[in-house]
Amino acid sequence: MKILVVFYSWKGKTRLVASSISKVLGADLKEIKEIEERRGPFSFLSAGYSAARGECSKIKPFDFKLEAYDLIFLGTPVWAMRPAPAVNAFISKAKLKGKKFVLFATMGIFGGKKTISIVKEMIEAKQGRVVSSFIVIKTGGVKREEMIRRAEEIAKKFIKQGRKEVR
Ligand SMILES: Cc1cc2nc3c(=O)[nH]c(=O)nc-3n(C[C@H](O)[C@H](O)[C@H](O)COP(=O)(O)O)c2cc1C
């Protein structure tokens, strides 16, 4: 089974989780990147505002084809209890029909469940299939090693039980 782990990350936590998962699964790892860098004193507010409105940001063209994969892990940070605008953009641009997804999100404290349900709806609206999802809880105040441990644990659990659901 060919697996892709694709993610967006602003501050690096979702990247850390995604790369830990991909290592355990032996999956390809790809990052969704925005064209404009988010910086400056109002960047946090504008990011949250844009996410709250369900907007798509401008993302760089991706150098991979989802068609090449049997299963896609898609990860987003939680912004204002929603997916990041770059992930909205990815979903709106990519061909998802018939593709199988496992969803994950990283969050400071709360909003992961709602975020995952929004991503699921968007994927299903484009005829993709969500076969499983999980939330990597609380990156706020959590040490790097602990985040890696959680991500690896989830990926190992997926290998043990989850693949069954995926067929
Ligand atoms: C604009 C913005 C909005 C956020 N909103 C939430 C939120 O609603 N709930 C939450 O628990 N964490 C929230 N966070 C925290 C992030 O979800 C968390 O730090 C995440 O792990 C960051 O991922 P990253 O390092 O890959 O960017 C927010 C962060 C940003 C930048």
TrEMBL record:
InterPro entries: Flavodoxin/NO_synth, Flavodoxin_CS, Flavoprotein-like_sf
Matches recorded under Gene3D superfamilies: 3.40.50.360
Domain Flavodoxin-like: 3-159
SUPFAM superfamilies with a match to the protein in the record: Flavoproteins
GO MF annotations in UniProt: electron transfer activity; FMN binding
Record-given protein name: Flavodoxin
Species for this entry: Aerophobetes bacterium
The organism's taxonomic lineage, starting at the top: Bacteria, Candidatus Aerophobota
